[in-house]
Amino acid sequence: MAASGAEGFAPVLAALSTMQSNAERSQKSEAHEYLEKFQKSPEAWSTTHSILSTTDATAEAKLFAATTLKGKITYDLDQLPRQSLPALRDSILNFLTTFRDGPRPIRTQLCVCLVNLAIQMIEWKDVLQVVGSTLGNSGGDCVLDFLRVLPEEVTEGRKINLTEEDLTCRTKELLEDNATQVLRLLTQYSQSSTSAASNPHLLECISSWLREIPAADVVTSPLFDAVVHALSVEASFEAAVDCMCTILRDTREVDESIEIIQLIYPRLMSLRPRIGEAAESDDEDTFKGLTRMFAEAGEHWVVMIARLPNEFRGLVEAILECCARDTDRDAIASTFLFWYELKQMITLDKYKPARNQFADVFARLVDIMIKHLEYPKPGGPDETDLFDGDREQEEKFREFRHQMGDVLKDCCDVITVTECLGKAFSLIQQWISTYGAQATNTKVPHWQELEAPLFSMRAMGRMVSPEENIVLRQVIPLIVQIPNHEKLRFQAIMALGRYTDWTAQHPEFLQPQLNFVIAGFKHQSNEVVKAAALAFRFFGTDCRRLLTDHVTQLHDFYESVLDELPPASQEEITEGVACVVSAQPLDKIYPMFKAYCDPIIKRMMSRANDAKGAEDEAARLAVADYVQLITIFIQQIQPYVSPSLENPAVKYCQEILPVMSAIAENFTSSTPILERVCRCWRYMVLSYRTAVLPLLPTLAQQLASGFENSRQGCFLWATDSVLREFANGAEFVEASTSQAIYSFFEQQALAFLRIMNDLPPSDLPDVIEDFFRLLIDALIYYHGALLPAPICSPIFSAAISALTLQQEAPLTATLHFLRDFLSYGTDHPNSSSFDETSNTARVINSPDIQQCVKRMIAEEGEVLTQRILTGMMFSFPHDCFPDASGVLLALFEIMPQQVAIWVKGTIGMLPAGTVKAGEGERLMSSVGMKLQQGEVRKVRVLLQDFTNSYRRRNVAPREGLGRLEATRFRFNG
Description:
It comes from Letharia columbiana. The chain is mainly α. It has 48 helices and no strands. Helix content is 70%, strand content 0%. Mean pLDDT is 90; it is low at 1-6 and 832-841.
């Protein structure tokens, strides 16, 4: 028998062996395909039983068999006659008896099998009794595993193919009706022996059943003693912490849980001495568990802490102690949310007494956080190697510092910014008085103790009001004298960059800071140079009015450093000087704009000449970077000019437009250059709006020819800004201009359709995304011209064709367009929701427009229905489901009976064997009933549930979708 069984499953074992070996990829692919088909086959039922029964299979093979059996029960139970389910149940129970002592992964999978069978086998009413009596007294861990899995699968599985009513009823039978019995069983088990009371499986089981059993019932039972006792047993500590945190989570509604909190609180506080013990003995796991437990208690009881600060002060101090003693900084992060939540509560006027009560705690918290901000001391002779060469640890520390900076901001809200800044100032003063005289250009003693308060000042910068008049007046003169150490100089410059808003109100402090930052551009450290560029950007942005008289000197400085900086820093310093130029009087805008940008244009043209060679990618990227710098000037320099006067910024844009056009024409295959040029053109429109009208004919012509020649979506992105700015009804725009813009849009749409005719959607995802985002705006502003136009029908067909894509961004854009398009088949189109009190007229959707949309739905609606349903069943990313079902809903709202016929036809065309017997008929019956009742929106839910269930059971068939396979888009225009 064993031999014949082995022969029956030998191919499965061979395929598994191939998957686990070093075989070639093609062999592994074949093995994977074979196993995937095997798992769906009816033969898998008997084969998995054979593998689990034999002694010839490895533990890995038996785990695969148990996992496959789980999938069969979840998705394919209809392959078995209903009368065979008791036998299946008994066989799983037998397997559980065999594997009750392990291996645990196999035992767990078998428990999941039994639970999923129990959910669907609604006639099985005595589930717990049968499992308990079958496994017997010796099946302790196995029974606990089953009990743990039961609520998890019932409440989270939701993969079972039951009606909502049956699932609700079964959930009540399996969980709610058994909760009291389970509590009694777990209590009896916990009292059966000392080892049972601290069994991690027991604690996991309690955590799982806390979904159904109120925490109050556990806390008032002997089980809570077991949980607290398990916290002192090393083997069960982690599971006990999880269990305690789950109990705490159930007490979040403090008004309802006050009596339970009063029972838990003293037991929790009795654990406080262990914080110090764990810290002193370097027991990291225990320390982290205790910190997590106290922090979660604080989070869930924060309302109670704010109401009764005296009574709960011990808990807050315990959390503070965890922070103070965490020398390795491994546990402190779990307290951050608590400090934020507590700050949110006690800064309310209602809880002002608690704010006063905890002021000293937050003051100590500032000291602790600044101390934790210190870089470690180097362990070896290399002063620069602070993390023993562990770059990952260094990155983790950097990220961690910013989280601690957020806690410092919370402290500022509680005890005032001035007090928090004062602590940083005191530490800086203390370092200067202790070590300042010892610092040299090559060695700075204990620099970590100076760098940390500098970082804290940087972190708190956002909280400081420009009116702060106590600490900053004293500390900024000290910062600009910081020794020339890389990390100190970096942090000092970054800190100054955070206080530029304050400096704008205190101009007497500007020059020393600016000199300090500009000196940073000459530093040997690239990090310091980058910091200087970022800080300069803030100075230019916030202090532009103070720097207007220095615009010429800044030009010389800008020219001297620009070529030495990396691209990101070039952009930052450019933004800084562009802001200063923007603050110039109107008569100086044009000459200053030209003075700053002409040298960049020359650099760009020089690199463009170098970049003509096919191999010179670096030169092409440099061209794109220079275009970006010009764009930054255009973004920042937006002078207010009367509509009757020439805009000096537009005058300069008119000069450089031919240069940009030449760049675009000469680099039609360079995506970075074309995207930057289109971005530049787009911001010309966004920055100067209707003042850009003199440039419009040339700009439109360049966008049209550029798209046709390059087939890059960025030209459509730029077109969108033109369309929105010069649309029908826009202020200061003549009707003839708006009409010309619509003609320009149609030209772009025609080019897109020709491209779609030449290439499949999979080759054009970005272009498709940009086109349908453009179409969404075209519907808003030009629906009256677009929807009746001959070009609209092929656009609709192109959208349907685009639904074969699997990337989220282009699909989302297409689905949004389709939802807006279909809404014009109703009285209330999506784009007509303007405020009636505004100057924009409310869109009235005429019967003629509705008829145009309905005509196109009649022609293409069946194909659209097929593409939406097959996408939801096979290919759409999950985040596209709401929009996809929204398209179906829109179709049903316009033509309910016809769309129901199309849905039925689509389901009938699905690959054979993928739809369960009677499933399609039940769906269509439910759809028909909802339509008769006028509940069209509920049809959307029915179709979502059907496609979700279908998708879980099936993957896209390798042999294709048969009659539902998409056809290529064709356009003859």
